[in-house]
Amino acid sequence: GAVVSQHPSRVICKSGTSVKIECRSLDFQATTMFWYRQFPKQSLMLMATSNEGSKATYEQGVEKDKFLINHASLTLSTLTVTSAHPEDSSFYICSASARGGRETQYFGPGTRLLVL
Amino acid sequence: AQKITQTQPGMFVQEKEAVTLDCTYDTSDPSYGLFWYKQPSSGEMIFLIYQGSYDQQNATEGRYSLNFQKARKSANLVISASQLGDSAMYFCAMREGPGNQFYFGTGTSLTVIP
Description:
The structure holds two protein chains of two kinds. By secondary structure, chain A is mostly beta strands. Chain A has no helices and eleven strands. Chain A is globular and about 35 Å long. Chain B is an all-beta fold. Chain B is 0% helix and 53% strand. Chain B has strands at 4-5, 10-14, 19-21, 24-25, 32-39, 46-52, 60-61, 64-69, 74-79, 88-96, 101-104, 108-113. In chain B, the strands form three sheets. In chain B, strands 2, 5, 6, 10, 11 and 12 form a six-stranded mixed beta sheet that branches. The radius of gyration of chain B is 14 Å and the shape is globular. Chain B starts with a strand and ends with a strand. Classes of the chains: A mainly beta, B mainly beta. The interface between A and B is medium-sized, with 24 and 20 residues.
């Protein structure tokens, strides 16, 4: 299957700082990337959908100014958690869908964020 | 209403036996896709199998098969010859709509017993 990477895999930061998470599709062009958040023992919660070159579409209840998403190219999307607080601690997973949009989503390995 | 329902929070299966993980879905879109993903303790979501709404035959991928019953709106995952490495969370998902959004179920934790 297609390969999607995420960096960093783990990050610990102080409250009030910003954290950037990168999501890359390594062997295919992803017109659409998705960002999810997952709390322990729970399902994935879609945060936003980003299409290359356009603004991300955020799910209801997700703060756009808090979670900045940039999809600058067909292989890279970034999620920046601004002014992180302890309640932002979670497992963040990105996924990428190949050109055409109606393809399987391939997931990155996830990023564990811990805000102290 | 929930788009994807997985009613089994936890399942146990003996090694080498088959197990069925249930999934029902809700959509009015005639074109949709159904997926199963495995999530081991490492957290990575691993794609297992896909079934399109117009596919006439049930999807199969190695030891995985999808029992697609369109009229009942169910898409159960069957794992044959369970292995210890199959112990993980399993998520059923559906893609639908013009935005190709994914909806995930709450997951089923599968434990394979030696």
